[in-house]
Amino acid sequence: MDCGIFTSKSVLLFLSLVFWAAGAALAYVGAYVIKSYDNFEHFVQDKYTLIPAAIIIGVSVVMFIFGLVGCCATLRESKVGLSFFFLIIMLIFAAEVAALVFSFIYQSKIKEDLGRSMNDVFMKYDGQDAETKAVDYLQTQLQCCGVKNYTSWSNTTWFSSHNNTVPLTCCKNTTSTQCTGRLDQLDLLNTEGCEDKLVNLLQGVLGYAMLVILGFAIIKFFGMLSVCVITCQTGNRRSGYQPLYA
């Protein structure tokens, strides 16, 4: 077997296996991104930031299905099968590039989006409604207090109507009876703001997704090259063509 054919077949068979593994990995990444945003949905009003995750999950489903197609087409050296596999790889490659572009765009818009929404949600805090639960969850999980910092609470109706105190979820130890939310107990309070921490978290999630997508996009690129090599070499053998250097 020609060395180029053997190498290209090996690459495509490996790529077929990667399709299944990558499908599982991308499905996990997409679900992780959506779950991360869902946990803080009250603060992320721009749902377009979920487009990269939706693309990732869509790509993962396609990869599961067509991994088998690539394996069969490679072993049989089917020109039709390989052409179809090439088209699949190219479409997935384009989708991954699109996901990278969207991720890059929305990674820079996260802070702007949060800046518009977090103040509104914190202002609605009353200790009972859905916004309250969202704020409490945010402050507990990220160990933060207020939008910019703990002093941001001084501009809310909660602060003025509760003897100038912040919610108990600002406490470092939420089960402690010593922490009452008064601003003269700074040693018992988380003083860092939630906005920067949430921005860093969401940007980190998108950054992780972008690295995964980039790695698989590079593999797809070499896969397309391998399909071209096998198709050309197979066509040469069937037509009886011999290269000049033979």
In short:
With 246 residues, the protein is mainly alpha-helical.
Q: Can you put this structure into words, describing what you see?
A:
This protein has 246 residues and is mainly α. Helices cover 70% and strands 0% of the residues. It has 6 helices and no strands. It is rod-shaped, with a radius of gyration of 26 Å.
Lay out the secondary structure.
Elements: H1 3-39, H2 51-76, H3 79-123, H4 130-142, H5 157-161, H6 194-239
Helix pairs in contact: 1-2, 1-6, 2-3, 3-6
Shape: rod-shaped
Beta-strand proportion: under 5%
Number of domains: 2
- Provide the structure class: mainly alpha
The string of secondary-structure elements, in order, is HHHHHH
- Average pLDDT: 77
Distance between the termini: 15 Å
What key phrases describe this protein's structure?
246 residues, disordered C terminus, rod-shaped, Cd81 Antigen, Extracellular Domain, Chain: A, mainly alpha, single chain, 2 domains, 6 helices, 0% strand
